[in-house]
Write a structure and sequence with these properties.
alpha/beta, 4-stranded mixed β-sheet, 195 residues
């Protein structure tokens, strides 16, 4: 077999980089399939932090990536927890500062993250048979802004996706001006009552 060289050309400074994307519908209703509101980590990169990162480093990473949640990974590429922008801007950092007598800039991800054993996750198989209304009720009953979705692979749970209250509101066409979970659900209920 003969192989010819592929044609090549030089890139210029306007060259970008293609990245995986998870294209979700712009608008959904409570009757849409639940997968229409799940960020699928088979299609989009999950951003990470390390337990030894400072919260300032993580906050800058979140701003660069335009996300509000990072998975905290250990050196063996296992999920050890989550850190959110709410964790960083909430009471946790100041509690660590006062209890340990350190500066805020010295607070580490490990100090304020939610450990993996406190994380709940929905089964991807269940989610694939559910509707957006089920997702809304799951987030409401947990009182959280995020829910994880796991998939069993070779007998082990692996994080497959993420359900986000802010993403859900966006897709439902609801504008919410707060990160307070209870107020967000109140705005959703008010919106749905008028639809």
């Amino acid at each position: 077999m003969n192989f010819n060289r592929l044609a090549t050309s030089h890139l210029d400074q306007s060259a970008g980089l293609q990245r995986p994307t998870c294209v979700l519908p712009d608008r959904v209703t409570l009757a849409n399939p639940a997968l229409d509101v799940m960020t699928d980590f088979r299609r989009v990169t999950a951003y990470i932090a390390l337990p030894g990162d400072t919260i300032e480093q993580v906050e800058a990473r979140m701003m660069r990536r335009k996300v509000r949640l990072l998975f905290v990974m250990d050196t063996e590429d296992r999920v050890v927890g989550l850190i959110t922008s709410t964790d960083i801007h909430g009471e946790k950092p100041m509690q660590v500062v006062h209890s340990r007598g350190i500066l805020r800039g010295d607070v580490l991800v490990a100090d304020i993250m939610t450990p993996v054993d406190q994380l709940e996750a929905a089964d991807f198989n269940d989610l694939s048979h559910a509707n957006v209304g089920h997702v809304l009720e799951t987030l409401r009953s947990s009182g959280r802004q995020h829910a994880l979705v796991f998939e069993q692979i070779d007998g082990k749970k692996s994080v497959r996706g993420l359900l986000s209250l802010s993403q859900l509101c966006k897709q439902l066409g609801i504008t919410v001006q707060t990160t307070e979970v209870a107020l967000t659900f109140a705005a959703i209920e008010q919106h749905l009552a008028h639809v």
